[in-house]
Amino acid sequence: MNVLLSIKPKYVEKILDGKKKYEFRKQIPKRYDDIDRVYIYSTSPEKKIVGYFTLDEIIEAEPKKLWGECKDYSGIEKDKFFQYYEGREKGFAIKIDEIEEFKEPLNPYTNFENFNAPQTFYYTEQDYVDKRNN
User: Fold this and answer.
1) Choices 3.40.50.880, 2.30.130.30, 1.10.10.10, 3.60.15.10: CATH for 2-129
2) Is residue 133 scored above 50 in pLDDT?
């Protein structure tokens, strides 16, 4: 099983460059042990699937602890991190393992009928690697 994850372009760039090794979420896929690939959907203005990563682990902790453990490869400023988790008792950090960037980003709106971008994420059996245009 795979997951399609929506990520803002400025964070996508840091993931692809290896500067961001943790993707922070307020909620995560419940069946993450079964996930083969996490496809990266770069949100507006790009609106394309740019690659995927495999996940190493998911860390669940209260925000202060998450920041302490992940800050060196967070790819986000401290104030934005704590703003994101404001009022939350816990958060999640998806630790990125191997990254595969597509040579040509995949436009899902032209390649898939009735494509809807995920609000945060959704499960998919789709293998987007096979649909690339390169």
Assistant:
1) 2.30.130.30
2) no
| DSSP symbol at 117 | -
Q: Are 49 and 40 in contact (CB under 8 A)?
A: yes
Burial 22-35 (b: 16+ CB within 10 A, else e): bbbbeebbeeeeeb
pTM beyond 0.85, yes or no: yes
| Closest among 73, 4, 70, 74 to 35, alpha carbons compared | 4
User: In degrees, to the nearest 5, what angle opens at C-alpha 19 toward C-alphas 108 and 27?
Assistant: 60
pLDDT digits (tens, 9 = 90+) for 115-124: 899 988 998 8
Phi, psi of 113 (to 5 degrees): -70, 135
CB 78 within 8 A of CB 71: yes
Angle made by CA atoms 127, 130, 134, in degrees to the nearest 5 = 140
Instruction: Look at residue 73 and give its three-state secondary structure.
Output: helix
